[in-house]
Amino acid sequence: MKEPLVPLVPMSHTAHIRSHRKPRRSASTLAMRAGVAGGVLGTLAVAGASGSANAAEPVTQTLELPTLTADLAAQAAQSADATQQAAANYQLQAERDAAAAKAAKQAKADLAEAKKKAAEAKKKAQEAARKEAAARASRSAERTTLSTTADAGSTTTTTTTTSAPSGGSVATVIGFLKAQVGDAYVMGGTGPNAWDCSGLVQAAFKQVGVDLPRVSQDQSTVGTEVSMSNLQPGDILYWGAKGSAYHVGVYIGNGQYLDAANPSKGVVIQDLSGYPATGAVRVL
Predict the structure, then answer these.
(1) Residues 279, 218: Cα–Cα separation, whole Å
(2) What is the mean pLDDT of the chain?
(3) Which of 37, 65, 200, 210 is the most exposed place for a label (fewest CB within 10 A)?
(4) Which positions ≥6 away from 259 have C-beta within 8 Å?
(5) Residue 191, exposed/middle/buried by CB under 10 A (0-12, 13-18, 19+)?
């Protein structure tokens, strides 16, 4: 049996062009999506409510640190030891620096003190040298003056072994003798800077025109014999027997005499009580 023929409907001229409309979603799809959204919003609402409820109370949370292993403990101990050793080293270095600074300060003070003492010693030495030079100059001037006076007196005075000019003669003799104090003793010395005992006495009296013998034995016999209890400045003292005396000096008053004593003393002033003379003669 033949199927009935279906009449052909002519197609639209735009039927071959795809439609730009979005396909319509089915009702089940929309319902599912609405349910998911509702569940999410419900979850957020519950979370928000829970957060609001818990915000009033602080949350305490305990964190448990992992237990150190044996290696980590050893490393920590080594680090602590190293830190302690470093601190000890720093302290030791600080103490050393402080000690060095203190020693440097003390050394500086000691050096300043040494320089000060050296300067003072130098000043004293210079002052002593100046005084010594002045004393020598004074002695030289005094010797020149005494020599000039003696030369002037010799032109008008007749000299003998038993008499001498009066007046200032004793002072001149004693002044000459004192000017020689400190000179050396030399056997046979007759000046100007070294004497023996009789050479000094002879030179002293020559300043006032009295010409004495050269040796002690002969000098002990000149002038007038005087007792030791009646001495006057300018008297010649002798030690040993008269005519054979071994030493002479000159009495200068106040229990003292001046002589060229010996090589260790030189020309000095001494107390007569320490070395009493045998006798004395007076020529002035």
Answers:
(1) 14
(2) 76
(3) 65
(4) 197, 200, 201, 237, 247, 248, 249, 250, 267, 268, 270
(5) middle
Measured from the Cβ of residue 169, the count of other Cβ atoms closer than 10 Å reads 21
Structure tokens at 231: 């001495």
Residue 198, both tokens: 């009789």
Structure confidence by residue, pLDDT tens digits, 113-172: 888 888 887 777 777 666 666 655 555 555 544 444 444 443 333 333 434 444 469 999
Contact 245, 220 (CB under 8 A): yes
Rg of the chain over all Cα atoms, to the nearest angstrom: 67
Domains identified in the chain and CATH numbers: 169-282 (3.90.1720.10)
Pair of tokens at residue 272: 């007569």
* CA of residue 252 relative to chain centroid, distance: 50
Query: Is the full-model pTM beyond 0.90?
Result: no
